[in-house]
Amino acid sequence: MPSNNPSTIPPSINHPMSPETHPPPSPPPPYAPPNTAAITRPGPSSVTYHIPTTASPTTALKTTIHLPPNSTWTSGLHWHNNSTEYLRLLQGSIFATLGPSTKIYTATTAHAEAVIRVGPRVRHNWGRADEYLKQRSRAERMGLDPSTGEGEAGEEVVVEEWTAPASVAKPLFFWNLNGVVTRRSAGPAELRAERVLRGLLGAYWIPFQLFVIFYALDNYPVLVGLEGRLAWLDGVESGVGREVEHCVEHVVTFGVLSLASLVGRMFRVEAVREERTPVGLWEVWVREKDDGRKKDL
């Protein structure tokens, strides 16, 4: 005769304590804000983005970026023309380059988070401090011991990123950039003109799509870094070499991205695509585009 002792009752669909039907809820990952979804890119430059899925008129749209130990990921040297960017370091240590200077930031406690303000048109780049300082010359140039940051080498880096004024452009950028890099976009949605261009560009198809996204969403990477090659011009006047280098770098970036945007419009390659974008953000993007067209009439 079967026992009525609950401890001997096998799990079943009718048992209220069955682990199959009532699994314990999984705790949310640390620093994963509500109304976000995660995209992880594995490999040596591993990174996880927690990107907003809806737009809010009252709060900043913050993307939380996680860099695991040994990740070589960096944001790449770039600038924004129309927005101020903020980086809040929640965990770990990072290097941050703003203009001509590079500093190391460490979140020592939960109440001592570093917030970095990046103004419009300021070139910036950031990533894990320990990876950056593995090059001894960098540490020595900054007056640091090369072992700086090794204490956090096994710790995940967590950074929040957002812009002011508040805009859907930043989360749209992350969704569509990662959609291209991870090839998440749906093939059937591709137009015939787009397929033709893909065939013509071959291996350059992915960089081309990224250039279209960069131009449309105010993200300008330094494509050609001269890095002091015109320093000899400082003999004419102090600092003129760096100014000329910046001018050349800006012209190259703007020229390449403008050309990509023009070709993209000709072949109907969109920076923001519905299949790469959460519904809540897509609706805002479409509405803003429609409002922009009405203003132009």
TrEMBL record:
UniProt feature, compositional bias: Low complexity: 1-20
Highest taxon listed in the record's lineage: Eukaryota
Pro residues biased stretches: 21-33
InterPro entries assigned: RmlC-like_jellyroll, RmlC_Cupin_sf
Renumbered residue ranges of the record's region Disordered: 1-36
Protein name (database record): Uncharacterized protein
Naturally occurring in which organism (per UniProt): Melanomma pulvis-pyrius CBS 109.77
